[in-house]
Amino acid sequence: MALSTSSVITLHINGEKHTLPVDHRTTLLDALRERLDLTGTKKGCDQGQCGACTVLVDGRRTVACLQFAVAAEGREITTIEGVVDGDHLHPMQQAFLELDGYQCGYCTPGQICSAIGMLSEHAAGWPSAASADVRPEAGPPPLTPDEIRERMSGNLCRCSAYTSIVEAVARAAEADASSPVDVSAQSREAAA
Predict the structure, then answer these.
(1) How confident is the model at residue 175 (pLDDT cuts 50, 70, 90)?
(2) Burial letters for 31-54: b for 16+ Cβ neighbours within 10 Å, e otherwise?
(3) CA pseudo-torsion sign 42, 79, 67, 102
(4) Which of 75, 139, 162, 168 could disulfide-link to 101, CB 3.0 to 4.6 Å?
């Protein structure tokens, strides 16, 4: 009796359900880009080493090139397309724009998704290799540039915009996440 090598799955992406047949070997990255036309998530190394394909799965950072699409079924997936809320940029997106946290922009979607996930990990008190005090009762360590660099080290920028990326993450960490930036108002101001 031969086993099936494909399944019909339902993926919850950016608040919408997508049902599609996939080969069991299809990565989440390929399902997003090739099957669902969500091309904001980039294919870099396809080996989990560059972070260009980072998305959030149940709020946690995941390199989509190493996760099978069938393993993501029933989980909440957020891509760069789902970070923005209508006309409101996420504070991380706004910080990247204001501080030039990008150059060519290829790694930027993965950097932004990773930074959003990283700030949640930090707020939950997860230590990093740069954390001086890893005791749970110490709480989250100060979000210093060294701490940010260590926590973002899985995301590479071949243009070397690292200084601006660290500054953007620090600024977004200070921003009130409940006050998204109104993109349409900025566009009106720029046009005036």
Answers:
(1) confident
(2) bbbeebebebbbbbeeebebbbbb
(3) positive
(4) 168
Given a contact cutoff of 8 angstroms between Cβ atoms, the answer to whether 118 and 141 are in contact is no
The SS3 of residue 158 is coil
Residue 183, by phi and psi: left (phi above 0), alpha (psi -120 to 50) or beta? alpha
- Non-local (6+) Cβ contacts of 102 within 8 A are 96, 108, 111, 159, 161, 164
pLDDT tens across 44-75, in order? Answer: 999 999 999 999 999 999 999 999 999 999 99
Mean residue pLDDT of the chain comes to 90
Would strands 54-57 and 60-63 be described as parallel, antiparallel, or unpaired? antiparallel
DSSP labels, 87-112: TEE-HHHHHHHHTT--SS-SSHHHHH
Assigned token pair, 4: 């099936």
The arithmetic mean of pLDDT across residues 77-90, rounded, is 94
Kindly report, residue by residue over 122-155, the tens digit of the pLDDT: 999 999 999 999 988 888 899 999 999 999 999 9
Alpha-carbon gap, residue 37 to 46, rounded angstroms: 18
